[in-house]
Every structure is written in C-alpha cells, then in structure tokens.
Specification:
homodimer; about 550 residues; alpha/beta; 5-stranded parallel sheet; 15 helices; globular
Chain lengths: ~550, ~550
C-alpha cells in the first residue's frame, strides 16, 4: 500500500498512557523512512494515574510520578501546544500559538485520538469555582498546596467555626480514584497535623460521598466492604446513595440536601471528553468516539483510530473496554499494529484483552486486589499494588526514583512544604447559595463585585441592629467603595437567591480604572451616588 | 528583669536562615513559660540559598532544597501571611488577611527583623516584565519551567531567528548566585537538548554579564579567573564591565548599548530591602537597618534586633558583615542570646564571627573555595562544597533526601518534566523598545492593548508594500478588532519610542465586556469607527 519514498505522517493527539504507548510501539514497528510520528500534548510528560494520589502526601516526589514523553519516545516529535480543531475531512489538526502568535496546522495521513477525559461540572452550581478536579499533576500539586494552606490557616484562625471548616475535607466519588485520594488525604492531614501546635488536638473531618450503595463499584462486594471498614476505622465518614450537587466557598451541598461546611471539596466523579471532541462531528456513544474492535473510528476506518478514555470500544468478545491504564496500554499496541498494517499492508488485529485484575490502594499498608480471579486484601494486596504498579512504570530511572521515594517515605514523616506557584488574585467567578454572606461589614475591601446572576441584599449593623438597606440584582456592582477609598466594608452583603458574581481583585481594578477611564467612571459615579445617599440617611453601599 | 508569670511575646519577621535559626536558638534558650515565639513568613519553609540553583537541573528534588520551618522550630507559632506594617512605637505588626478578609495585629515585647532582600528593578525599563528574579523556590521552579518551555518551542519553531532567541540565555550578575545559576543553566540546557531531535545540533548561547572587571568579586583574583576559564570552556560567554540596563520580551539591552536577542533573562543583581522596611522610619545605612555590634536596632536597643541581608552590621572587630548564610546563622545565635539576656537579665554578647571561608559551585564536578586562608579549585573544591553545605543543611531527613538526590543525579540524566502551575494569561504590562513589533499583521488576536506610556505606529502591508496608517500614543487602545471579531490582526503595530502597554487577554476582555457594558462600549465604538475608516479607505486598526 505504501509507495516507496513517501514518508507517512502519523499524528497522535494526547500524551497519556494511550497516546504515549502508541508512539512507543510505532517507533519500534516502523522505520524512520516509513513514517514521521508526531504527538500533541499540553504537557511534556505522561501522568501515571494510579500513583497520582501519592503526590498529595509527597511520598512520591512531585516530578517522579510522571514520565517525560521525549525520553520514552525519542523519535516522535512532541508538540507541546493546546488542540484547537480536528478537521477529519481535510485531514488537518490545528494547534494553539506558542511564543509567536500564529496557529499551527498539522496535516496527517493517519490520526490517533487518545485525548482521555476532562472534568465537567456542567449544571452543578459553584462547582467550577470551588470543587477541585483531580486529573493531572498540576491538580495533585494544587490540592496538596491547598491542604497545607488550610492547615496553616487553621493554626492561626481564632474563629472556631471557620477553623472547623478548614479542617473538613470532602471527596466526591467512591471509585478507585476517589477512594485513593481520600485515603491519601486522610493519612496526610492526620500525619502532618502534629506539626501544628494549636490544632494538634482538633478533630479532622473527612467525608467521602458516593452515589452507589457501596464504594468501589469496580470490585466485588466483599472487597468494597473491606475497604469501607478500613477507611471508617481511620476516621473517614462514608456517605452512600448521595452525591455532590453544588458547592460554595463555605460548604458542599449534597443532592439529599445535606450540607457539609468545608473549604476543601475534591471531585473525582466521571468525566466527559475534551471540548475539541465534543464539537467533532463523527460516530459517538455517550459523547465518546465510537470505534470498532480494530479501534478504528466509524466512518474513518484505516485513517483514524481512537483509544483510551475518550473512546467507546468493545473487545473481540464483545465486552465494553473499561477506562483503565492496563487497557489503554494494550489498546496502544493494537492501534500501533493496525497503523503499521495500514502503511505496509497486512492483517489488522482485533482488541482482545479482557483485563488481568483490579487493584486499589487504601494507603498505609493496605489495599484491595482481584487478580486472575483471586481476591486479596490488606498488607499483601498493598505489596502487590506497589510491586505491580512499579514494574509497569515506564523507564528504569523513574522506577529507581520511585522506589527510593517509597523507602524515604517509610523512614521519615511526610514533607509539608507548600510550593506556592499560583497567583490567586485574578479576575474570577464565585457562587453563593441563598443566605450566604459575600462579605461582612468591617472586612478588608479586597475586590469589586459584579452580579452576573441572582440577587443579594445590603445590610448594615447600626446600634447593634441589622438594617436592610437595599436589594441588588443582575448587572449591579458592589464593593467598589471600600476598594476605591481603601477602607473596610461599611455593610454586609448576603445572597437572597443562588448568586453568581464576578470578582475583580483590587490590583486589577486599579489598573483597569487608570487605563480605561470609562471603566473607572462607572464605579466612581456609583460610589458618589451611594455615599451621597449614605450621608442623606438611607441606602449606602459596601 | 522578667516578672514571674509574665510570658513575653517574641516576634520574628522573616523565615530565612536568619529568622528560622533565631527561633531555633530561642526555643533552646528559653522555657515555654518564659516566652511565646511567633514567626511571620509568607512560606512555611526556609530556602537554603546555596543549593537553590540545583533546582534548575532538578539534581535536588523540588521540595528537598527547603526546610519546613515547623519541623525545625516546633515550638514557634508560624504565621504564614504577608507583612503589611511594622509599628515600632505601638509595638504592633500588622499582617495581611487569610481566608477571612480581616487583617491581623500582632503585638510584641521583642521584635526580630530578618526579612532578607527583595529584587528591585526600579528605573530599568522592561525588567519587571521580562527579567526573572532568582531568590526563592518559586523563582527557581519558574525558571526551570521556562527553560523547558523555551526548548519545547525551539523544537517546534520553524523561524530560525526566533529559534536562536529561544536558545539564548542571559544571566545578569557575576557574584556567587549569578555564577552558580549560569553554570547550572548551561549544564542543564546542554544536557537535555539531546532529547529534542530538531534542535539537537543547534548552538545554545549562554551570556553572563557582570559589572566588574572579573566575576566573583567575593573571591581572590586567581580563583575568579579559574572560574572564568571553566565557564568559558563550557561555552559560556562572559561579558565584563557592562551591565543589564533594559529588557523586552525579545532582547536584553546592556548599558554599553550591546543587544542580545533572547527570550530568557535572569537577574541575580543585588537587591533592596522589603517594601515594609523601606517605609519604616528608623536608622538606616543604604536602606538597610542600622544595628550595633549587639545587632540591636539603633534607637530600639533591648527591644528590636535586625540581622541577615536586611541589616547593616559590623562585627566586634569593626568589619562589615557580608550577606551570606554562614553569617546569618551566627547572627541568629547572637540575637537569641541577647533576647534571652533582655528577658532574664544578663550580659549581651557582641557579634564577632569573621567568616570561615567562601565556596562557589561551578557545577559539573567543579567549584572554587577559600577556606581558612587556603585556596582550592576543581574537583576537590566541588567535594568540599557538597560536603560542607550538606552537613550544614538543617534536619537529618533532608540530608538523606539531598544525598540520595545527588546519587540519582550522578547515575541518570536530568529530568525534563515541566511542572506548569502558573496561568500565564492575566492582565499584565509589557515593555517595547523603539522599532520592536508588538504584533504582526496576520498574527492571532489574543489580547487587547492600552498604551500607558510612549508611542507606536500602525502599519499595513498592501500589495507587498508597508503603508503607515496611523500613530498612537498614551491612553490609546489597539488590538480590539481582531479580538472582538475573532480574526487575525489586520495590521502591524511597531513601537516608535520606548513603549509601555497594558495587555488585557482575550478571556478577561470578554468577561469584563459582558459584566461592565460601559467597558465594552469603549472598544466597540472604537472598532466601529476604525473599521468605518478602513472601509472608506484610510486609517484602520489591528
């Protein structure tokens, strides 16, 4: 099928284990003269999902839990850009600009789609602003830093209610990922807490919420119940037959109406496909790309393959392929084989792997495992977990690093360094539920607010009595007076309906006010009108 | 002096080695009933400056190069907040709000100021926007990530001039810090470059610029010349008797007028004191707090002490105290002793340490050292450097971690994982020198610009001929058309004078436009006027 001298362009989208292993197998199967392999991924590494929760406690070094794609696939061209568009008709993929503001077009002969999933909080109020996803390395590091920040603040905080919120941690989703995150988080917080002298004796509350009637739906009932007992013994509250429905900066709200006051909500609930695939017009099953048992995209057989979490596939025997690392790695082998067959001619192979077993870590020398039909739990399962996952980790140097990390983690207490990298103060959105306070009279004025949706009321305490001063709704601004005059808030703002606001931090507000006078004028006039009103008695503003 | 039962409040500002060791010694010298020790620091760790450059290559794990303050000083209260004000008259320090937007006031009986330095780019155009400081862990991680990003982009970039800029690295300052950063950076880039197949053979250019007539002013001439030879042999260009004067996103501009096209400028030039000290009204010497040989702040003897880089001190023998870790650690001991004397009564001690020697790493098995009068260079100095600094690192577990990191770094190639945490797209400033292009016709429209200072021209290429369309100056906006209409730039913008602009990224622009209609109107009307002009022939806009 291949004309001599015509080098084929194979383009792989996504650098998770599915995409990276496809490239790795293709490098082995195809000669450099036969094909040029390119791989598009936003990061220059592949995350080993099963070990990601260990980043929380730092028992694996931050950069040891990932594999540098360039080392594993030295012959592939890595393009570290964001995907903008896939054009299946023109056979061209467009990626975002880099240092130079030009989009880049990548033509292909053969396309592999391995984009995994993305977290979607669609239709769940306040989740985007307040629930932390747990998918990639940045998420894991951000969660670790947030936990340390919460402990640091709890140690300083004098208000008991706020301290208790800071020491409450909610994880949504009782699958492997949620259970492992909860186990690691609970171990970590309880272990480092003793370094915080003022909260050493306070109770830490960890809540795991899951929609089913037991956790770990991937496993048999007895192993799931074993896991529940282990977690409960370590102090984790397990809430079943319920789910996270909404979130604010002060609490998690479950579907049943139960509210948990907390500053930390982690969501590991199942995901949707990447936006670039959502707008792709092709055969799909519940949003995921529909492929045949050769893993070819329906309608693009012999040209486009899809694998991993973004695809919906059945094995040769007709069973649906679950979204796990062991399946992704084997799918990659099938895809690489079939691309080679497409280039050279030859027989395509069907995906026939049915899974070797299931492993879930519970942290702290415990795990659950079902391997080749045998069920194991406890210390032995934990050794199995570590042994099997370490042996599957790509690259010898990484294996050594992780092994040493584990030895160190056994010998010494976990590290509590907060590697702060994020600037927290940019223009962002926030969600409030009815009755929640946006800010209190007397607070420091750090942001200006614009109401995008919902309503709130302005309340001022005078002579010990709260007085209702005004109602505000969509399109209204508030909070400009304290920011413009650099004083503290002169009133309290409380949501009267579900409220979505845009926060403009003080620094950005000042910059914009000076650069775009019309912008500043809007707020200056408002402040003038409101302070005039305040003086002439009635409706002032925070 | 101390009344029985009256627990004294000792407040330490700054958690560098000076502050952290003061707390550590105080915990040993004073009983818990005698004093409550608090320490304010923005991070919960102390950075070991001499090893910080090793974070660049990852030869020391990201979080291994720092010491968690809570572990070293378990009895002190760490307050992880930003300093806002020091009131020496009222004996109160104010810190920024945490999760709750209230400032916190901390009263003290005894105050220790150990705030180190901060990088100041005052009066150097474009430095704040384009030169990277190298002081703390976040700086080191950000530099490492930037280097990897530059290599990734160079590997994809087809434009040779841009590729060469991406592969040029400028470090300003030839003291210990600048030399160590340059040595690590040069080793790292040249070592990982081979993983980038398209730039494997391209030249990397590393330029070290220093104001003196030789680098390492801290050392004797022969050792400095040895270091220069070693660096030159590894391909580093050393530019002497010159200094960095300005920077843009495209080049470094030296005082002599020499320009180096580059995307990476690191500044290690000496620093100034923290802003909170700049506004403090007390005795100073070139901005630094003036202390006597007991390290007491002039005018506040027996109440306020200052040490480390933020203070100006002389030893008992009358020699100025240099800003090094070994001096800071000994100053901490003196301060702790003198605070104990102030509380219990007793004799104060004078600071008499004159330094044991000087060590500078050149990376790659080489270093220079002057110890107890003996000068050593090369491999032996390198072993000395590692041995001495490792032995001085506080905490046994960290020593083990670093030791293992070093063994791994000797056995395996450096890790090239880019741990991206920063969102790059917030409202920010940028500086352009005359003749530089802000954006080119045909570029992707990713930001709207507001001119804060300076002027630029609008040029459109028509029939292969550049045509001057308009001049813009302070307060003018540009770039809104491509962003509003989501198309590429229809003209080129070039600075005609030094130009300072505010960049509003597309996302923030859209959000603000919708939330504050008056803001959007400014740009919509402008765009309408300009596109009207464009149609009726003359002055359109990018």
């Amino acid at each position: 099928m291949n004309m001599p001298g015509s080098k084929k362009k194979v383009l792989i989208l996504g650098g998770g284990f599915a995409g990276m292993y496809t490239a790795k197998h293709l490098e082995r199967l195809l000669q450099p003269e036969e094909a040029e392999i390119s791989l598009v991924n936003l990061e220059n590494y592949s995350v080993y999902q099963p070990m990601l929760p260990e980043v929380i406690s730092g028992s694996i070094g931050l950069t040891d839990v990932v594999s540098p794609i360039r080392r594993i696939c030295p012959r592939s061209h890595l393009i570290m850009r964001d995907l903008e568009e896939i054009d299946l008709a023109r056979k061209v993929v467009t990626v975002s600009p880099g240092f130079r503001p030009r989009r880049l077009e990548l033509p292909y002969d053969y396309l592999v789609v391995a984009l995994g999933g993305t977290t979607s909080f669609y239709g769940m109020p306040g989740m985007l602003e307040n629930a932390k996803p747990f998918r990639n390395l940045a998420d894991a590091v951000a969660l670790r830093n947030h936990l340390i920040h919460a402990l640091e603040e709890a140690d300083v905080e004098t208000d008991a209610a706020l301290r208790s919120k800071l020491l409450t941690f909610v994880v949504a989703g009782g699958g492997f990922s949620g259970v492992e995150v909860m186990a690691e988080l609970n171990d970590f917080v309880n272990s480092v807490k003793k370094n915080y002298s003022r909260i050493r004796k306070e109770k830490v509350r960890c809540v795991l919420v899951h929609s089913g009637d037991r956790i770990l739906p991937e496993m048999t009932q007895d192993l799931a119940l074993f896991a529940q007992r282990i977690l409960a013994r370590r102090g984790v509250e397990i809430v079943l037959k319920d789910r996270l429905a909404a979130a604010t900066s002060e609490k998690a709200i479950f579907k049943s109406g139960v509210e948990v006051p907390t500053k930390t909500i982690v969501s590991t609930v199942p995901s949707t496909v990447a936006p670039v695939l959502q707008k792709l017009d092709c055969a799909k099953d519940k949003g995921r790309l529909l492929v045949n048992s050769f893993l070819e995209l329906q309608g693009y057989e012999g040209t486009v393959w899809a694998l991993g979490d973004c695809s919906s596939a059945k094995t040769k025997a007709g069973n649906p392929v679950p979204p796990t690392a062991q399946h992704a790695i084997r799918e990659a082998k099938t895809v690489a084989h079939n691309i080679t067959a497409a280039i050279r001619g030859g027989t395509r192979s069907e995906f026939a792997f049915e899974g070797l077993g299931k492993l879930g870590s519970l942290g702290h020398f415990s795990a659950v495992a079902e391997i080749l039909g045998i069920r194991i739990s406890g210390v032995l399962a934990w050794f199995l977990w570590r042994g099997i996952y370490l042996s599957k980790f790509p690259g010898f140097s990484q294996k050594v690093r992780i092994g040493l990390d584990w030895v160190i983690a056994l010998l010494f207490p976990p590290d509590l360094v907060q590697l702060k990298m994020l600037r927290e103060s940019d223009i962002r959105r926030q969600h409030f539920e009815p009755g929640e306070v946006v800010f209190n009279q007397g607070d420091f004025g750090d942001s200006v607010y614009v109401i995008e949706k919902g309503a709130c009321e302005v309340i001022r305490e005078q002579d010990g009595q709260p007085r209702h001063l005004a109602d505000l709704g969509g399109g209204d601004y508030f909070g400009e007076m304290a920011v413009l005059a650099d004083v503290s808030r002169n009133a309290t703002i409380r949501a009267t309906t579900p409220l979505d606001v845009l926060l403009i931090p003080k620094d950005d507000f000042s910059t914009l006010k000076n650069a775009v006078p019309a912008f500043g004028d809007v707020f200056k006039e408002l402040a003038k009108a409101r302070s005039g009103m305040a003086k002439s008695e009635s409706r002032p503003e925070a």
